Amino acid sequence: MMRALKLIxxxxxxxxxxxxxxxxxxxxxxxxxxxxxxxxxxxxFVQANYRTFGMFLRVPDDSTRVEYQKDWDExxxxxxxxxxxxxxxxxxxxxxxxxxxxxxxxxPVEPTPENFSIEPIELRDxxxxxxxxIYNKDEPANRFNYLTSVKPGTYIYYGPLLMQPGMVAGGxxxxxxxxxxxxxxxxxxxxxxxLIAAADSVKNWDVASADAWRRAEEKATKKGEPVEAPxxxxxxxxxxxxxxxxxxxxxxxxxxxxxKLNNYYALMFTRMPPIPGVLGYRRxxxxxxxxxxxxxxxxxxxxxxxKK
Amino acid sequence: xxxxxxVTAVAVxxxxxxxxxxEQAAPQLVPxxxxxxxxxxxxxxxxxxxxxxxxxxxxxxxxxxxxxxxAEAYADIRECDALASGSSIYLDGSAAMAGAMAxxxxxxxxxxxxxxxLIADAIFGSAARRQQRRINxxxxxxxxxxxxxxxxxxxxxxxxxxxxxxxxxEGERDNxxxxxxxxxxxxxxxxxxxxx
Lengths: 308, 196
What we know:
By secondary structure, chain A is of the alpha+beta class. Chain A has helices at 2-14, 27-32, 62-100, 194-197, 207-223, and strands at residues 23-25, 42-48, 54-58, 126-129, 136-138, 143-150, 153-159, 161-164, 167-173, 178-183, 188-192, 250-252, 256-258, 268-269, 279-282, 285-288, 293-294. Chain A has two domains: 19-60 and 125-198 and 237-294, no CATH class; 62-122. In chain A, 26% of the residues lie in helices and 25% in strands. In chain A, strands 1, 2, 5, 6, 11 and 12 form a six-stranded mixed β-sheet that branches. A five-stranded antiparallel β-sheet of chain A has the order 4-3-7-10-13, with no helix packed on it. Chain A starts with a helix and ends in a 14-residue tail after the last strand. The model of chain A is unreliable at 1-20 (pLDDT under 50). Chain B is mainly α. Chain B folds into two domains: 52-87 and 125-196, no CATH class; 90-123, no CATH class. Helices cover 49% and strands 4% of the residues of chain B. Chain B has helices at 2-15, 51-55, 70-84, 93-104, 109-120, 126-143, 153-157, 170-184; strands at 61-64, 147-150. At the A-B interface, helix 1, strand 8, strand 9, helix 4 and helix 5 of A face helix 1, helix 3, helix 4, helix 5 and helix 6 of B.
């Protein structure tokens, strides 16, 4: 069991550099002075009528690139240093295999700038929120509020992913189309319930929704009840931050369409349904409805080890 | 016996281990050359479905899109394969349910629980990973407006592969993907469109 635990710890350590420095802010901590709103920090505010969660990727800026390059150089130097030892081990093992008639072990690959990599730069500043650590609950409105302090910058909504430190426990990646927004320092960027309420309700949008609709229809038919139309229970778009956050100005987030993303965590993936005036699609091409232009679609890169 | 228990413990621990970013390999676009479709042999697609075949159409299927040429179909299939390659699994229904709620708005509780059970049905391990890959391919090819058609397991195996824990060898994958593109850009099937 200890070995199993060590495996988990080792796996966590692997992704430690990708840990987000974002922090959930709670109203009770502001009141007690344990947390303070920092004008140098950015803040993402989200509300929902239930506990929710999600993940954002911060678009790497120059400072991220500099840090990344530094870490890359260090890790590459380390890998180069290790290579002669690995080669020697392989030579010994290959000799033993030859003598014992066993299968030859795979020769280690000398690290080069082309074949060496550390964790993807896109995962340097991931930010997640929920379902725990709410800012507060607005009881009369039955509303859960989430506030997260983040590095200012541009953030892409990666999807409703449940993040634990260094790991993703589940959810869906919006790998084939999503939205992005700016977060400025000293300002609360109010996303309201946009991520939940803004998108069109499209029946059979993806396999999970098609399956859900089919089951719901079967159940309703069995009971002789009418089937809800898509979007029937969807909340209205709502914004607004609690009074206790008035120390900083709040601005509504301005959402823009964003193109395809790699499936970094190898999860179920889909795409955000269309959002009038913001996000549209032509087949798998993402369209920025603010400009009417196609969003550049990057070439998808696989993170999977290729088997020769 | 002790080692068996240890293996089991590790397996259980790993099964409940959430997904971590795949960083063991350098990010790469799998390089490929566009094959000449004239060198490929179209797989057999004709069969008379039995009720059992139809029950397995969520596993054994192929894609086709009218108007897609071979090159376009091949690029589409390669892209969806890259996105769907490698897998992890939902740990339980709640994550998927909340994901679906965020995606589709708050619908009847039945819908949430249906999504939950869809995922809860999955058995952790290779089978769940294979299922996830199939669903991801259906989503991806669906967004690219390909139709889906059913096959028998036997016919399907001639030009498809499943991936659970590991990755198939590149040659085997490439051969299958090429034939899938040939079929996807070939004559329109006369069998029933399965939907997403």
